[in-house]
């Protein structure tokens, strides 16, 4: 139920329902979505072409918010800069009769960050929280300088907030550092980044890799939340300055070094020599205008160059990050797949279950709700954050982490971790194999070979070449339809034994789609 519109001037009033928002065709500014008076989300205006077509725009509720949308909510849509209210409506979501609150377990407000994850933004945290994050920034800067010989500086949102307001951006939730490498060959830049991680780990930092030339350190702030401090390599090739993850600009070395300073919450922190030039290269000429919906959209040539240089182990990564943080994943049903139900009929909840490539978490969370000890592994950070948010919101116990099947070191480390526990396990991969390139698929066999030494089965469901031309309901991405005989040959060459095999239509039906799939159950134990 939606109450009448009380704000807005367009002839096309914004519309709200359980699944989506619909905004008018004349919408031309960044808008905020508030629930119960609390800002939770910002949306960019449509392209000029879309606006010229005069059609309203349907925007599904993000996955991270959906678990919370059950009950009565006051939904306000307003322009971000002017605060002009476009709509102020009461809506009842689902069947709940309580008030919708987008908060964490401690009752603290949450909002969507630039990656579509629910986080506590800086403007809802305490002064102590900000101080503890900046303490972590200063410690990391010191260790990079004194232990690694790297003179890093604040960058991206931290630099933008410092220059524009002298404070961290209110809607942001992490901090970013960068440095200019002396190296000009990407391989040397990557080797340097790996060295920095090893040194920092020895000094007690928790490190999470982002690419061959960037990584994240994790801290716990004074409010008990986990915050990230990202460290990005910058380097100059052919007179162009490149900064991970997506900046390329004709900036000279003198635009970065020697470092200057900038004030952030009263602290003097290192900054590039020409702060304004780097901010314009990063955010465009309108960098001074606040925009919580901003996303990086570098030219395709820049993405391809940086991917080839230092993100080669992250094939199709950008697509999957976008998929799970954007609107496309909203089409994925919430109920468990038929394959998950089929596996449950054959397995015991007493056996730990590891899902490789859990996607939206629909199956992993369902298994966890049945009592399985679930460990989910997924390529995209946005998918991991969504699964964690959903587990917390629904009070389901499960473990989720980022895992890259294209990086052999991660595969070997995870295989060793799983093999340490002598308990037989269930490995589960639905629609995983056909979304992988060859090396990723080979690493699945290596992981299973290590993890199942104590017993258990690897369950797989994948699309075959029998209907390779069939369109997929969830958009275009890398997909290699597989010959089941070829897959079985690869498994057996790795020492696996096929316990069950089935190929047919009718096994993975979704709406009008009925792909031809193969199901396998594989044993590796002696």
Describe this structure in words.
This protein is an alpha+beta fold and 526 residues long. The chain has three domains: 15-102, Immunoglobulin-like (Sandwich), CATH 2.60.40; 122-312, Beta Polymerase, domain 2 (2-Layer Sandwich), CATH 3.30.460; 323-523, Rossmann fold (3-Layer(aba) Sandwich), CATH 3.40.50. It contains 13 helices and 25 strands. A hairpin with a 2-residue loop joins strand 3 (31-35) and strand 4 (38-43). The relative contact order is 0.08. Mean pLDDT is 87; it is low at 1-11 and 470-475.
List keywords for this structure.
single chain; 526 residues; alpha+beta; Immunoglobulin-like; Beta Polymerase, domain 2; Rossmann fold; seven-stranded mixed beta sheet; 13 helices
